[in-house]
Amino acid sequence: MTLLPPDADTVPDPWQAEPAADPLLAGLNERQLAAVQSRAEALLIVAGAGSGKTSVLTRRIARLLRDRELWPSQILAITFTNKAAAEMRERVGHLIGHEAAQGMWISTFHSACVRILRREAQQFGMTQAFTIYDSADSRALIKRIVKELQADTLGLTVSAVAGKISRLKNELIDADAFARQYNQNDPTEVMFLEIFRRYTAELTRANALDFDDLIGQTVYLFRAFPQVAALYQRRFRHVLVDEYQDTNHAQYALIRELTRGVRPEHVPADTRIETDATGAIPPAKLTVVGDSDQSIYAFRGADIRNIVEFERDFPGAEVILLEQNYRSTQTILDAANAVIANNFDRIAKNLFTAVGAGDKITGFTGYSQHDEAQFVADEITTLHDGGMPYNQMAVFYRTNAQTRALEEILIRSAIPYRVLGGTKFYERAEIKDVMAYLVAIANPADALAVRRILNTPKRGIGPATETALAMHADELGGTLRDALSDAAALKLGPKVTGAMLELARILDEASATIETALVPDIVTAILEKTKYLELLRASRDPQDEARAENVEELVAVTREFQKNNPEGRLVDFLTEVALVAAADDLDDSSGTVSLMTLHTAKGLEYDAVFITGVEENLLPHQMSASEPGGPAEERRLFYVGITRARKKLHLSLAMTRSTFGDTQVAAPSRYLQEIPAELIDWRDSPGMGMRGGSGQRQLGSSKPSFSYGTSLPPGKPKTEWANRVTNTVRDNGDLTLEVGDRIRHDDFGEGRVTGVTQNGAKSIAEVQFDSAGRKRLLIKISPIVKL
DNA sequence: GAATCTGGTATTTTT
DNA sequence: TACCAGATTC
C-alpha cells in the first residue's frame, strides 16, 4: 500500500495550499479529504456506516470534472440501486452545476450493462430489442422445462434449479463450462445439465437475457471482442463503484475488464487520450467504496473477498479508512460496534461520533406480533406528536411476510405509511399480462411472452392448441409468432384458427409501429383491440374491478415515462420496468412512515428506526442456520439496520408469532445479548402488568434470561389486552364519536374519547383507554362500539 | 375448453 | 394462511 501516489506532489494544485477555500473540500475531516483528493490508480475507501461516503464520492467526482481532469462522459459510476444513482447525479450536479455534470454514466451494474448490450447486440447474435427476464420469468421457463423432462422425480425443484443456475452464472459458469466439471455419475447432475442447456437454448431462441446474463454477457462480450472492449476501456477513464462489498464474481470480472489498458492496435490514430511509449492507453483509474461489515448479499453471490483482496488484485492500491460517523448517537454506535464485534474474521473497525450519547435504545417485548405492532404504532404517534415528521421514521423487518400485522395496526392508528418492495406492482397478474403484450410486440421472438398472452383474455386457445403451435414453430424452424401467423396450416377449427390469426394481426400491427409510436399509445391500442380492460370491467368477479384499476395505473405509468423521456420508445420503457428496484420508488417528500426489509434499508437513514421481530429463527432467520457464514451474515444485517438510525432506535420482538396459520413460541434473538444491557431501556407491554407477571417484568428490565418457552402459560390468557387483532374487516359506517364518549375496543377494552378529528371516512379518534393507554384510532374501521 | 372444487405445500433476503 | 396444481363437472 502506498500512502500517497508520487504524482500528487508534482501536479500543481491551486486548492491544496488552502483547502478551506475550496467549497468542495469544506467541512471534510482529514481522512475524507485524503479520499477526495487521492490520485492513486486504484483507491479503496473503507467506509463505515454513516461515515459520509456518498459525500466523499460525489465531491471526488465533482472535483475531477470541475478541474477539467476528465470529461463527464469519461466517468462511469456504479451504484447499488437506481435510486442511489439518481441521488448521486443530483448531488454532483448540485456541487458543480447540472450542465457540467451532463453525460456521466451513473447507474447500476445492470443498467450500465443493458446500455452496452443493446448497443452491441448484433455482435453476439441478438437484436437490440432483446427481452430482460426477471426472476419470475426465469422460473416460469424453468418450470416448463422441468415439467417436460419430468425432472421433479429426481428431486429437482424449480427453485433449486433456478438458484443453482443463478449461482453458476454469477460465477461466470455457463452450461458448457458446467459440462466440463460436473459429476457424470450423478443422475441429478446429468438432469440438471440438460435443464441448464435447454434453458440457455430457450433464452437464445427467445432473444432474451436473464438478470444474471446481463452481467455475464457483457463480460463475455468484452473478452470475445477486444475491439468492442477497447471502445469502453478508452471511453471510461475513471470507474467508481459503490457498495463494493456486495459485488459478485461476475461484477468483479466486469470491473477488471473495464479497467484494463488498451493495446496499441486498438488505439485509433486520432485519439485524444494520452498514450504511453508503446502507443497503448493506460488502464482507467478505479475507486471503490465498501464496508465488509455491511455485506449482506452473499446469497446472491456477493463475494466479500473482492474487497478483502483488493490490494492484492490492484497492486499499488491506496486504502483509506473512514471511521468517524456523522449519523448516529454514540449509544447507537456502541450497540452496533458491540454486535458486529462478534463476527471474528473481520478487520477491526470502531465507529465513533462527536454527537454525544443521545437517548437509550428502547426495547419492547410484546405478546404477539400484533402487540408488537401496536407498540410501534404508539411510539410513532408519540414521536410525531413530539415534532418528528413521519418520513423520518422507518420500520424494518427480516421477511416481507411481517408487514401484514404492521400494516393492519398502522391503518387502524391512522398513521400514513408506505411499504417499499414486497409484492410489487409489476408482479400482479394483470400487469404481467399487459407487459407480456408489450414484450411480445417489442421482441417477436419471445416465446414466453407470447405463450402468456395466447389465451389472455380467453379466446379459446388452450394447452392442446399451444402445443400444436409450438410443434409447428419447430417445423417451420421459426418462432412461436411465425407459427401463429401461419395458424391456418394447423387445420384446426375455424373458431380457434380465426382467434390465432386475429392475435397475430394485432401483434404484427403493433410491432410495425414501435420505432415511432409513443408508449401510452401502444398500450391503449392493445387494450382496445384485445378488449382486455373491457372484459375486466364486465366481469362479475369483484376483484376484477381492482385489476382494471391497476391496468389503468399502468397506462398512467407509461404516460409518466413518456413525459420524462420524450424520446423514449417501447424498448426503453421495458428496460426501465425490468430494472426498477424496491428502494427506487422511494419518495422522500411524501409524509409517510417507510416500511421495508432490512435488505432494502441498506444505504438509507432515518431519525427513528424500528427493528421488529428480533427473534431467533427470524433474525437470524431459520434458513440461514444451515448455510456457511449464515449467522455472521445475519448479524451484519442486524448491524446494517442498527446503523440506519440517527437519533432513536427501537428493538422489538414478540413472544409468539403466527406463521402459516398456527402460532409458535418465539425466543429473543441471540444478537440482543450482544448489546450491553445498559444501552437498552426495556419496556413492557401494557398488558403485562395486568397479569402480575413480575417474572416477565424482570426479564424485560435489563438482562433477558431468554426462557419464554417455560414462562409462557399454556393457552392464551383472556385478558382485556388480548394478543390478537380481529382480522375481519370492520366497517363502522357513519359512526360518529364525540369527546367524552365511552367506547369499547375489541383489543384494548374500554376507554374514553379525548379528541376527535373530523375528516369524513378518515375521522380519527383519540382515546384514553382504562388500561391500555392512549391510542389514535381510525373510527371507520376500528373494532369499537360506543357504550 | 372453462369453471369450480379440493387437497397439498410452502415463505428469506433481491439486482 | 394463501396460493397452486390437478381432478371433476359443466
UniProtKB/TrEMBL annotation:
| Superkingdom of origin organism | Bacteria
The similarity annotation says:
Belongs to the helicase family. UvrD subfamily.
Q: Key word Hydrolase present in the record?
A: yes
The protein's UniProt keywords, in alphabetical order, are: ATP-binding, DNA-binding, Helicase, Hydrolase, Isomerase, Nucleotide-binding
Q: Which reaction(s) does the protein catalyse, per the Swiss-Prot or TrEMBL entry?
A: Couples ATP hydrolysis with the unwinding of duplex DNA by translocating in the 3'-5' direction; ATP + H2O = ADP + phosphate + H(+)
Pfam hit, one? UvrD-helicase
GO terms of molecular function? 3'-5' DNA helicase activity; ATP binding; ATP hydrolysis activity; DNA binding
Q: Which residues form the UvrD-like helicase ATP-binding domain?
A: 26-329
Q: Name one GO cellular component term.
A: cytosol
- Membrane spanning stretches: none
Q: Where is this region: Disordered?
A: 683-719
Q: What does the record give as EC number?
A: 5.6.2.4
**Residues in domain UvrD-like helicase C-terminal?**
330-603
Q: Which organism is it from?
A: Microcella putealis
Query: What name goes with this protein?
Result: DNA 3'-5' helicase
Q: Where does ATP bind?
A: A47, G48, A49, G50, S51, G52, K53, T54
Q: Which leading EC class covers this enzyme? A: isomerase
Q: Ligase as a keyword?
A: no
- The residues forming a coiled coil are none
